[in-house]
Amino acid sequence: MCCRALVFEVSFPRVLDNLLLCFSQCALTVEALQQIFQEIDRDQENEVSFEDVKTAIASGELADFLESIGISTNDVWTLFMLLDSDRKGSIDLDEFVSGCMQLHGPAKSLQMAKMSYENKLTRQAIKSLSQDIYNLNKKLTTSTSFKEPMLPAIKEQF
């Protein structure tokens, strides 16, 4: 038997055990988040508002649980905005659970890379819009009686 096969035989059961443990912990976390959502949703509307989340965090139980899974509750507004993925101003059960599951624990390298990529795309779009505005301003200035461009410094900003 080669070394790889021996390592596989020895470590595979351990890896499998760790995966099963991870899945069961994940399932328990999802169940706990669903239960917490139901407690926050006192009106049984299947949606919670910023005030509902703020009140639940201030009471301590939600804050303690979120902190225990690695989600900071120092900035309630930012937390709420991150969970409100459809930007309706309220959070439903799916948004709450999936948002908390994505936020829990330390940031993962893939998430950081995605944020960096999205930031780069946003900066490129802003730069392009800035150039378009500069060009439009230049055309307006040359086609009218204005002697100086209205936005001369916009090109240099980016």
TrEMBL record:
Alphabetical list of InterPro entries matching this protein: EF-hand-dom_pair, EF_Hand_1_Ca_BS, EF_hand_dom
SMART domains according to UniProt: EFh
UniProt keyword terms in alphabetical order: Calcium
Location of the EF-hand domain: 28-63, 71-106
Gene3D superfamilies in the record: EF-hand (1.10.238.10)
Pfam families: EF-hand_8
Matches recorded under SUPFAM superfamilies: EF-hand
Source domain of life: Eukaryota
Full protein name: Voltage-dependent calcium channel type A subunit alpha-1
Organism annotation: Durusdinium trenchii
